[in-house]
């Protein structure tokens, strides 16, 4: 588990360093996750090495929302001033995300049906 913690923290530090190099355009934690994902895809890091750490972090994810909740409570004056704008932005972005996810899901289902048809009937099938 110690090596897994080291790997996760190493990629977090690399992400923060890259974010510092690009002047914080993208958060370092996001860059670190992308780097870790890339390392996992390229098999530079074995999933078994970080699985216990990932399981622990996922199981205790609620703890990571405490700072966000405190930030919201501290910003209540701003939120109460612009609540309509925030509500509209949240609603519009939620609807857009639902539409995009539905479209992507339909594309994947069509692709899966097509692949299944090719496996059953062969490549030159007209079904």
Structure, described:
The chain has helices at residues 2-21, 28-41, 47-59, 66-74, 76-81, 83-121. With 127 residues, the protein is mostly helical. The model has no long low-confidence stretch (mean pLDDT 91).
Outline the secondary-structure elements.
Elements: H1 2-21, H2 28-41, H3 47-59, H4 66-74, H5 76-81, H6 83-121
Helix pairs in contact: 1-2, 1-3
The H/E string reads HHHHHH
Radius of gyration, rounded? 22 Å
Tally of individual helices: 6
Number of strands: 0
Approximate helicity band:
over 70%
Distance between the termini: 52 Å
Largest sheet: none
| Spatial shape | extended
The secondary structure category is mainly alpha
Average predicted local confidence, pLDDT: 91
Low-pLDDT sequence parts: none
Oligomer: single chain
Strand content: under 5%
Throw out a few tags for this protein.
127 residues; mainly alpha
Summarize the structure in short:
This protein starts with a helix and ends in a 6-residue tail after the last helix. Helix content is 80%, strand content 0%. The chain has 127 residues and is mainly α.
